[in-house]
Design goal:
Length: 325
């Protein structure tokens, strides 16, 4: 039996694949390499396939049968909020259309367990800082909407048939488990600040008048290796779980402000950073922090690595990448 990982050549997927390979689990990766890279995957075969392709479900079912797959971890998606606002139908095609094809293949190949990459973006801008999974999801952009539709599809599919599934709502993912697996895209606070630093530019902070202790936005940062471990915990849980479908926050329950993260980057890099403050972005909540009780209780998972370890590992990965460039 093996695990099929879609998007396994991406930032998070490559960590999941490496942990599975280290654990001795046979893995097959499916990725169109649109944002991923072949050299992020070792120890597992990689099948190049665009999941939105008209024949993707057939191809995927063939791959699943050929590799005796009984579980899928589905990470492949597009994840840029701004891009999703500009190209909503393309985002639906990528994230929802891709998942439809994967679920068709699940049906044809008789796959039993499924772990889905969802996002805290499904919560939108809730009226409370700390959210558990019972908070009504109200995404505020097409990216978050595609993730919520994905959750609904899984909920509905697991109501009939034998599939058992878990949606993992990731909070703010950063860091690197290995220097060569750092996040190659500057889309989260840590990588954006490092990227700007490299170009001699100041970090830009959106809003300094939030109702938070230092006035900047507060988020829940989770180390990518802790997050990858959560996928393995979910897979193991689904082996025995009879519930069919569940949603889990993947966050630490702790939080840091934008300025605290920047200070941590200054500390690990030894460089002085002077933030430039600009207007808030529309829709940005002051604080968004996970209540991780459910995943701790049901999957026995908790984020073990600190903000300091997250930033230090991201810095190491950044130097690795810049050194290679
Ligand atoms: N990084 C984060 O902070 C974060 C937060 C919440 C949720 N997520 C979700 O986690 C998942 C992985 O994110 P990531 O940060 O590793 O992004 P990433 O862009 O590094 O990885 C996505 C991978 O999927 C592949 N892919 C994309 N579209 C595809 C398609 N149509 N067919 C086949 N492969 C395709 C890409 O080539 C890439 O390897 C995504 O579903 C994303 O929405 C990420």
């Amino acid at each position: 039996m093996s695990v099929l990982v879609t998007g396994g050549a991406g930032y998070i997927g490559a960590h999941v694949v490496r942990l599975l390979v280290e654990r001795g689990t046979p893995v097959v990766v499916v990725d169109d390499l649109s944002t991923g890279a072949r050299d992020r995957v070792s120890g597992a075969p990689l099948e190049a396939l665009d999941l939105t392709d008209a024949r993707a479900a057939d191809r995927l079912a063939d791959i699943a049968r050929a590799h005796d797959v009984d579980a899928i971890i589905h990470l492949a998606a597009k994840k840029q909020v701004g891009e999703s606002v500009m190209r909503p139908s393309w985002y639906y095609r990528q994230n929802v259309g891709g998942l439809v094809n994967v679920l068709d293949a699940v049906d044809r190949a008789g796959i039993e367990r499924f772990v889905f990459s969802s996002s805290a973006a499904v919560y939108g801008a809730p009226d409370r800082a700390i959210v558990d999974e019972t908070v009504d999801p109200r995404p505020i952009n097409p990216y978050g909407e595609t993730k919520l539709v994905g959750e609904w599809m899984l909920r509905d599919v697991t109501r009939v048939g034998d599939l058992r599934a878990a949606s993992l709502r990731y909070f703010n993912v950063a860091g690197a488990g290995w220097p060569e697996l750092g996040d190659p895209q500057a889309l989260n606070l840590v990588t954006i600040v490092l990227d700007r630093m490299e170009r001699g530019e100041r970090p830009v902070v959106f809003g300094r008048d939030f109702d938070t202790p230092d006035g900047t936005g507060i988020r829940d940062y989770v180390h990518v290796l802790d997050l990858a471990e959560a996928h393995l915990a979910a897979l193991d849980h689904l082996r025995h779980d009879r519930a069919g479908y569940a949603v889990f926050n993947v966050g630490t329950g702790t939080s840091a402000s934008v300025l605290e993260v920047i200070r941590e980057i200054e500390r690990v890099s030894g460089r002085r950073l002077e933030a430039e403050f600009v207007e808030r972005r529309e829709g940005d909540p002051a604080s968004l922090i996970a209540d991780p009780t459910r995943i701790r209780t049901e999957l026995d998972w908790h984020g073990r690595r600190s903000l300091r370890e997250i930033v230090a590992s991201a810095w190491e990965a950044h130097r690795h990448r810049v050194g290679r460039a």
